[in-house]
Amino acid sequence: MDLHQAARDVLTPLGYEVLELSISSARGGSGGRGGGTRRVLLRIDRLDEQVVSVQDVAKAAEAFGLELDRLDPIADAYRLEVESPGAERPLVTLRHFERFRDLLIKVRTDGETLTGRVRSVGEGRISLELVGSGDDTTRSIALDAIERARLAEWPDSPR
């Protein structure tokens, strides 16, 4: 079962974009069994690119929680956590990179992690001006070659 798709199917019509969905085991737990409760982490953004409010988080949590109850994909107990993008916002689409142009980001591609500023976006590629490399190097990276990308600094005003 593709939970990412299930989340998109439920949340997109409500005006939300699914940025991340992960399931992990929490440490500890009750009764000293050591297994703990699983954690389902969902990070959302608004499709209209406005700031995600507490009401947005609550609405998305309720809608996706009901879908998880309906699908029942996790055999054991779990805790659903819905969050706004936050300081380490994932960048997934070309629009994300356009939106945060000129900000510092961290990108993992071809087994290496690069830090730089997004300078341009187009034709399925981003242009990244690397920092900390000792020189002013610019690297062009195909979107489909990016394993992971996140903001490394927060904008002065919402974008």
Write a structural description.
- This protein has 159 residues and is an alpha+beta fold.
- The protein has 2 domains: 3-83, GMP Synthetase, Chain A, domain 3 (2-Layer Sandwich); 94-151, SH3 type barrels.
- It has helices spanning 3-11, 54-71, 94-99; strands spanning 16-25, 38-46, 78-83, 104-109, 112-122, 125-130, 138-142, 146-151.
- A hairpin with a 2-residue loop joins strand 5 (112-122) and strand 6.
- The longest helix has 18 residues, at 54-71.
- It is elongated.
State the oligomer.
single chain
CATH hierarchy, class of the largest domain = Alpha Beta
Would you give the CATH topology of the largest domain? GMP Synthetase, Chain A, domain 3
Overall geometric form = elongated
CATH architecture of the largest domain: 2-Layer Sandwich
Give the structure's gist in a few sentences.
With 159 residues, the chain is α+β, with helices and mostly antiparallel strands. It has helices at residues 3-11, 54-71, 94-99; strands at 16-25, 38-46, 78-83, 104-109, 112-122, 125-130, 138-142, 146-151.
